[in-house]
Amino acid sequence: MNKNLKRSLIGAVIFTLVVLAGYYYSNIRTKSYSPEDIVAYQQDDLQLEVFYNRPYKKGREIFGGLVPYDQVWRTGANEATTFQTNKDIMVDGSLLRAGKYTLWTIPGEKSWKVIFNSEMYPWGITLDKVPSRLPEYDVLTVEVSVRPLNTPIEQFSITFEEANDFVVMILVWDTTALYVPMKEPESNLTASLK
């Protein structure tokens, strides 16, 4: 083999290993600050699942500070948050078809917009720190009121709880809670919307 070709090949291999090691290291460090979590809900044959990353408060002002009001937020950290339902559901009275979506929010002081987007994005923001979301793929946007908390919550959290005929997706962080009601649609409503 030609010496120059051999040197070029060795250089390319070393460069590739350095790039991969850097990516792996930065990915692990980033994940340690905002660990991944999956929250799931199952009732009869309804299955809901959210995949997200859970950042910490760490003494920072969160909403209106780190997460600005009236701007799209990836609803967590790192990768775009995903929401999946195996059945059609009503989200705060509006129909969301069965499928997998990215979950975005626009925080406000009194209410938030919760957005279900049909595109899957590998990361929640671009290199310029702009949300990856493309609005033309939004399939549902609902607006829900903020519920203030007396005690700050250190780590961002999403949970599901049952309440009457609903399952409620609850988002909490710092002194803010958001309750997003969901339920299976009446069978005649689903048939008329198809």
Summarize the structure in words.
By secondary structure, this protein is α+β, with helices and mostly antiparallel strands. The protein contains 2 helices and 9 strands. It has 2 domains: 1-33; 35-193, no CATH class. A 9-stranded antiparallel β-sheet has the order 1-2-3-6-7-8-9-4-5, with no helix packed on it. The relative contact order is 0.15. InterPro entries: DUF2911 (IPR021314). This is DUF2911 domain-containing protein.
Separation of the first and last Cα atoms:
65 Å
> How many individual β-strands?
9
- Unreliable runs: 188-194
Q: Hey, roughly how much beta strand do the residues contain? A: 35-45%
**Class by alpha and beta content:** alpha+beta
**CA radius of gyration:** 21 Å
State the helicity in percent bands.
Answer: 10-25%
- Order of secondary-structure elements: HEEEEEEEEEH
Give the spatial strand order of the biggest sheet: 1-2-3-6-7-8-9-4-5
Overall pLDDT score: 88
Number of domains: 2
Question: Tell me, what's the shape?
Answer: globular
User: What characterizes the major β-sheet?
Assistant: 9 strands, antiparallel
The helix tally amounts to: 2
Protein name: DUF2911 domain-containing protein
Pfam family, one: DUF2911
Organism: Salinimicrobium marinum
How do the strands and helices of this protein lay out in sequence?
Layout: H1 3-33, E1 36-43, E2 46-53, E3 82-85, E4 89-91, E5 94-96, E6 99-106, E7 111-117, E8 138-163, E9 166-183, H2 187-193
Antiparallel strand pairs: 1-2, 2-3, 3-6, 4-5, 4-9, 6-7, 7-8, 8-9
